[in-house]
Structures are given as structure tokens and as C-alpha cells.
Specification:
- The protein has 616 residues and is an alpha/beta fold.
- The protein has 2 domains: 167 residues, FAD/NAD(P)-binding domain; 291 residues, FAD/NAD(P)-binding domain (3-Layer(bba) Sandwich), CATH 3.50.50.60.
- The protein has 20 helices and 21 strands.
- The strands form 6 sheets. Strands 2, 3, 4, 5, 6, 18 and 19 form a 7-stranded mixed β-sheet that branches. A 5-stranded parallel β-sheet has the order 8-17-9-10-13.
- A hairpin with a 3-residue loop joins strand 14 and strand 15.
- Helix 12 packs antiparallel against helix 13.
Amino acid sequence: MTTAPWSRDQPTSDEDDARMPENEIDHWTPQAVEAIRSRYRAERDKRLRPEGNSQYQRAAGELADYADDPWSDGPRQRPPLTDEIDAAVIGAGFGGLLAGAHLRKAGLSSIRLIDTAGGVGGTWYWNRYPGVACDIESYIYLPLLEEVGGMPSRKYAPGAEVRRHAERIADHFDLNRDALLHTAVTGLKWDDERSRWRVSTDRGDDFLARYVVVSSGLFGTPKLPGLPGIDEFEGRAFHTSRWDYTYTGGSEDVPEYPGLADKRVAVIGTGATSVQVVPSIAPHCGELLVVQRTPSTVDTRDDSPTDPAWWKRTTRESGWQRRRRDNFITLITGGAADEDLVRDKWTDTAPVRGRKLLMSGKGGPDPAFAFEVADHQKMTEMRQRVADIVADPGTAAALQPWYRHLCKRPCFSDTYLQAFNRDNVRLIDTDGQGVERITARGVVVGGVEHPVDVLIFGTGFELGVDAAGRARKMIRGRDGITLHDYWADGMRTLHGATSRGFPNLFQLVTTQNTITVNYGHVLEERAEHLGAMVTEAEKRGALVEPTEQAQTAWVDTIRAKAADMEAFQAECTPGYFNEEGMPRKRNESYGGGALEFSELVRRWITDGGLDEVLSD
């Protein structure tokens, strides 16, 4: 499929998805930009649903089987614990492991990881589907890689390797010894007389902890579409995070799936997970139907094995990982660096192009317009890539994304789009409406039933205010007030880590601090911050609790520095970035960026800031 040259005087159409003009901004007219805006809004409006996040449902009740743990033999019998420990860490993903590591460095002895999973790793414990791998370079994503050791086999390490790295961290810092797995925390209550947290669980545990760290992670509980008939399907159905190798055959190490050879398989969802799953299973399916609400952007990946000689040169100097991470963040936020160390498509996003356009002097007088033009250029290239790869014109048109570049997390693959050229792969595009319902035999889209033998839900994880709200309701600080009620009028924290009235409670979250695409970097920085506070608290015999003044000052800083993203997100196609088209009114992220935030916290620590968070 080829496309016609872009006309500045007429809007684009489904049949004529055209290239933008040359990169100079003066080629653009308001009419040209408005034509694309109109197309984006039309595509967004197709997908807007009044129920927002409520269009999904939890894997609970009659659907609880979708959340069962297929990777372990289930919980072992044990008596409830009623002891006292130094620290309870809720969550055994990378956040919890890093918290445990830095608590160990702070001198704590009894550190208890608590997780509903049967092992450590968080997202990487659950995600073992075919093709799962990092989408951030593994050399900068894997936390504590320089300290714990190990050479990733590839630039983008496969999921099993990432999980094994998590297990190495647990072993290195002796975090398995006291871990409670297959266990969910049901309550956290501060005991003012004892200056301890009382921790209760669904296994009958009721123990005391001096410190509590909440790091339950972003991706763990699968979510399912709230579709009529989802519990009536008579074939095999599972979520990608609970992949059923007993049915499909194969394993993480054996990428062959004979159980699908004579089956009609439907994958529902076309986000980052499905971009990895689809090309991995396509050669093994009798027929594969890919059911799409919204196409992802799919840029080149260019994965490669790690060259041992290059690795030896790169890692010979101490601090190499932090330098590489900082270089990556500098470049993806449009900053200048002498060299691009990572050199992948993350440093070619639309905002990066916008900043380069401005710095070149060709951006014109309106920075917002320059950024939008850069975005349109990038997205046109993404649509053109689809047209160049996918042979069938109708399929190619349906796979072309029509929204601003960072409305959805960008995807990278050199095999996903190519999979649609296979005779046994068919795209079922729902034109933004999603699946209508599920029957005993298959899925209904636009009134047409598509019979299938296997349903695979690549619909992501519970990630929203509902999940956070449930967690906050179970945390009771001084005078029995819940964290949910304390934050009823807005979050109140110091650096997003601690809140007044909730002593010795730490949160490894992304609100009121910072976030970047390399979440492993964020978690490691947050854990270092936690470790510094606990180390000093241990020296002084103090509680960790911010003063009212310090907390208020930080909230004011967040309000002053936060970028106003509501208008941008409201224009975006619905997804988890914008709460399914209903973005939050208030941005709770530090607007100065990840590197600025990290430097701010380091200066705060060295300049005596810990006095603002430690009390007798």
C-alpha cells in the first residue's frame, strides 16, 4: 500500500493517509493542522465510553480463576504470625526488592516481603507469555545491575532473564528468608503506644512492624473487559499474565505451541503485550484473530545479542549504569548530550523532535504549534511504516494509529506488523467500539459472531484510582484516620514518600514525585531516598514523619511545577494513560523531570533536609 502526497488544503481520509510535508514548520497552515486534529477527535470520540474505567472488571467472583497463580503449587500451610519485625514491605516486585535492599543496607535485620504471588518479581513473575521482553534497554532497566552483577543476553532482555535478575536481588540481600508469599495484606494500623504498625493479612497474620513500605506495583492484578457472556465461553480462556502452557504447549524456554496448531485463537487487545504475543504464536496457530479497539504505534526495535567485549568495555568503570540511565533520560526529555549511549527509538519520540525543532530555530514563534507539528510528522511516519509493511490495504489502514504520539505507550517490534502478512492471521478491527459480547462459541463484533476455540485477553492490569483507593482505605494512621480520608481533598506528602500522621510509612509510588519511561530507574532512586531516611532514623532513634510545614511546602511545589496535562490527555484516544478518556483534573507529578527531581532530593538530604522528616 502506498500513500499520496499530503495536501494542505484538504483533510485526510481513510483511503488517503498521506505523508506530511518537509520538516520545516513554515510548510504548515492552520488548516492543515486542524484537518488532522479533526481526524484525531473523530477517532477519539468513537472510543469514548461514559463508564470510563468501569468498562473493565476485576478478575474476582465468578472470574477469579483468571487471577489464579499458574506458576507455583499454591500456598503452603503455615501458622499465622504474631511476631514483631523491623520492616514489612508490601509487594515483591522490583520496587519491594529495592526497598528491601536499601533497608538491609540501612542495617535492618528482619525484613518481610509480602506478596500475593508465589515468588518475587512482580510484573515479571506474572508475565511469562510468549515473546515477553523489556521494551527499555535491559542495561538501564534492570535495577542494581552494576551491584548485583550479570550480563543480559540481549539489548532487550527476555522476561525470564528479568525475573531471574529479580531473584538474584532477593538472594543477594537475603530477602527470601522472611518473605510471606501467597499472602495479601488486609490492614495496616498504627499503634501509637507502641510506635509500631499492626499488619494483618488474609492468612490470619497479625504482627507488628517498625517500618512499612507500600510498593504493591503498577502491574499485577489482571483486568478484564466487562463484556456480557464473558463467563459463558465454553472454550479455553485466559489472561496473558496467567498464560496456560499446559494447554498451548511449549514454555518460556521452548517457543513452540503445538496445542494451538489446529485451533482458532483470538487475542483481544493490541497494546504492548499483544505486540509481543501475536508474532510469537502466529506461526503455531491454526488461525489467529487479533481483535483491536485501538492500534498501537509500532516503531522499529532493532534488538541484538550483547557483545561480551562491548560489555566488558562498557562496565569497567564504576557508575556506568547511572551515567547510561541519566544520558537516556536527558535525551528522551529533549536535552543535549555529547553522545547517545542507548541509541534506540525512545530518543525519537514526538516531544523529543519538538524540542529539537525549537532548538534548531525552525520552530516558529509558537512553541506549542512546533511541538504539534513534530508530533504529526512522527505519527505520519508511524502510519507510513504500517503501509510499507502490511500487504493488505484494508488491514494496513485499520492498523494505522490516529492520535498524538504519547497518548499511548509507544511499542517497538520488527515482527508484529509483519505477522499480518501471514495467511493464518486476520485482524478483527472493531472501529473503536471493542467487542460487543462473548458467546459460548466466540466473540461478537459489529453484530457478527467469530467462532473461536481459545480466547486470550491481552487487556492489561488494574491500574487506576479504584485500586489505589482500595489500598488507601486499609491504611489507618494516627487517631485511626485512613489514608484515603486524609487525602480526600488531594494528596499530601513530602516527596511522594511520606505523609504526616502516618509515621514510618513509606510509599514507592509515582505521585508527587516523578515518573519516566524507565520505571526501573524511578524505583531505584525512590529506594535510595527511603534508605537514606531510615539510615538516619536508626542513628537518631527517631520516627520518620514529615513536619506539616515541609509537607505543605512540597504540595505547593508540586502544584507550582506540575505540567498541565489535562487538555492534552482529554484530546487523546482513551486508554490507561488518561483514565479511559476521563483524565484527572490535577497532575500530581513533579514537573521538572526525573533528573531534576533526583538532584533535588539528593541536595535535600545533604543540606539537612532529613531534619524535616525525623522526630523523636
